[in-house]
Amino acid sequence: MFTIEKTEIAKAIQNAKALHPTVRMIRFGEYTVTGAQGGTYTVRCWRDREGKNVDCTCPTRDGIACKHGLAAVDLHIAVARMRPEPKETTRPSAATLGRV
C-alpha cells in the first residue's frame, strides 16, 4: 500500500508507461491490472484522512509505488471525474416528516 501524496511515484509512472498494462474496473475503486507477462493483480484505490491510497496485490513492499497501482490510478481518476458530485445529506425536518 502507498499514499500518493507521500510516495515518490516518478519511477513507477515510467514503468507503467513502458508496461502498457491492461486495466479493468471491477467496481469503482477496485481494478484488475494485467501486465505484459500475464500476471494479474488486484488494485484498490480510496481516499481517507491520510490522503489518496493505493493497495496492490503485487509483491512490491508497502510504501513503495508500483506500476500496477499507478496504472489503475489513471483509470480511477478518469472514472471519478465522470461521477456526479455527492449531494450533501441533510437531516429531515420535523415538517418534512409530518410531525408538525
Descriptive labels:
5 strands; 2 helices; alpha+beta; 100 residues
What is this entry, summarized?
The chain is of the alpha+beta class. It has helices at 10-19, 67-82; strands at residues 2-3, 22-27, 30-34, 40-48, 51-56.
In words, what does this structure look like?
Helices cover 26% and strands 28% of the residues. It is of the alpha+beta class. It has one domain. It has a five-stranded antiparallel sheet, with helices on one face. β2 (22-27) and β3 form a beta hairpin. The chain starts with a strand and ends in an 18-residue tail after the last helix.
Reading the helices and strands in chain order gives: EHEEEEH
Globular, elongated, flat, extended or rod-shaped: what is the shape?
Answer: globular
- CA-atom Rg in angstroms: 18 Å
Unreliable spans are: none
* Proportion of beta-strand residues: 25-35%
Main β-sheet, in a few words?
A: 5 strands, antiparallel
Tally of contiguous helical segments:
2
Distance between the termini: 51 Å
Q: What level of helicity do the residues show? A: 25-40%
Q: Mean of residue pLDDT?
A: 85
Structural class, please? alpha+beta
What is the number of beta strands?
5
How do the strands line up in the largest sheet?
1-5-4-3-2
